[in-house]
Amino acid sequence: MTGSPTAEPITCQNSGQSCNVLVIDDSESDRVTYERYLSRSDIFGCSILLSDCGEHGLEMWQKYQPDVILLDYRLPDIDGIEFLQTLAETRQTLPAVIMLTGQGNEQVAVEAMKMGVLDYLVKGNLDDKRLIQTVRRALAQQELQKTIARQQQQQQLMASISLRISQSLDLETSLNIAVDGVRELLKCDRTLVYKFNADMTGWVVAESVLPNLRVGLGAKINDTCFRDQGAERYLNGHKTVIADIYKTDLTDCHIELLEQFQVKANLVVPILLQPTEKAKHSTAKLWGLLVAHHCRETREWQTTELSLLEDLSVQIAIAIQQNKLISKLQKRAVDLATANRRLQKASKMLKSRNQELDEFAYVASHDLKAPLRAIANLAQWLQEDLGEQIPPDNQQQLSLMKTRVKRLEGFIDGLLQYSRAGRQSIETLPLSTAQLLQDIVDALAVPETMQVTLPTSEFTLNTEKILLQQVLTNLINNAIKYHHRPDGHIIISVKDMDSMVEFAVADDGPGIAAEYHDRIFGVFQTLASRDTIESTGIGLSIVKKLVESQGGEITLVSELDKGSTFAFTWPKDSSLS
Known about the structure:
Radius of gyration: 49 Å
Number of helices: 14
Largest sheet: 6 strands, antiparallel
Strand content: 15-25%
Low-confidence stretches: 1-17, 528-536
Number of strands: 18
Oligomer: single chain
Strand order of the largest sheet: 8-7-6-11-10-9
């Protein structure tokens, strides 16, 4: 039993690809008829392979992998169903099979269709038109299945490449993944990524190439023709698709450049970096090109191949921008780490200095108060021991001495308070502003002739009560103490300021001239004579320090003879500040 294929395949006019049709039939006259039908058709150009039995037909299929099989159901060695079963054991998907039979058998037809047969034809009803139409449909279906399978494979490979690129934090690795993936996707000879310099010269930064071809990786290219004519087009989204470099309008210098790399066909898409959200009104930047070369022969590129290359160029652009962002973040992390180390060092130094300040203040307080107590005691003993023997002038001087000693002790206590202001660790507790203000006013023992108006609004704060109480007590007490009339009026208010509240203490007292508004917040600063009104001049400086330690701000609005208003902001929740 013999079967011989035709000598050379003929190119199919409808697809541009050669195709093989395997005819398996034990009837020589039928084989000749089918061969004549197909060879005379001007639609098909294909190799017609002939076999007269099932076993030989399987050998022919194994050797030539035909696109279509015309299979007689009744063969001398095995029937058509057994042939299909054997074929199915050797490959997952069957080729396009058209089963032929001398007479119709519905049961055989159903079984054949279940096995994957495309069509079932009865020989007695078969003519050239019907055979050609059936084979044409089989070839079309075969081509469709190949296209679908190829697209699925490309999509899977594309998804895998995109995932690997997105997972890579290193740009060089991402570019190498891209060029290797493109060459595998397109089955081409070379793929490369070309990066532009500012002057539109550039170099190959990544490449995947067959072993027998020239390596372009690292090559610096100064293509003046492209620089002058091509770059602007790519900025506008141009893509280059060349099946044969000698059948295009490329300039001689451009062809010479391609010849250096043995290129016969190429595919080029731009790598465009889109503007960021901050610079969304700017235009895209041409970073480089993604290039596919075919060097062994010319090549007709498919639309799907161009789309794949475009999609991958977008992934590369994302990887480039991601790499820039990562570089910035890494630099920011280094800067933050450096700043954090400096901050820790400064914090440690500040803690040490604060400890030294506390120790100094305590020692200074102890060492200064000791002689002051001795002076005060001496004055007291003189008054007690000598009594009426001391002249009135000397009595007054001793009293003045005791007053000054007491003032100096107040200065020392004030310094201690100022050095510690805002640095105490105090538990935050909820408190009512109305209740706090009422307690402060009651504790100050306001003169009966003076009026204090409390706010009608009330807030609940989560704060260090003792600090807020110290600030308000100082301001209200100052308004009472420095008022020039016994029937003065003091108005206290509080209002909402989002995450803060603003307290204000206003009076109708003598007021403060504008040139002293900043000075009064300094240490040991007082406007009235200390012999007239006893004061250390530290109170407002402590108030300012406490308010600012809470993230607040204190202000003064005042004019001479028009009263004063001290206002400060305080957080509603000190644990968050």
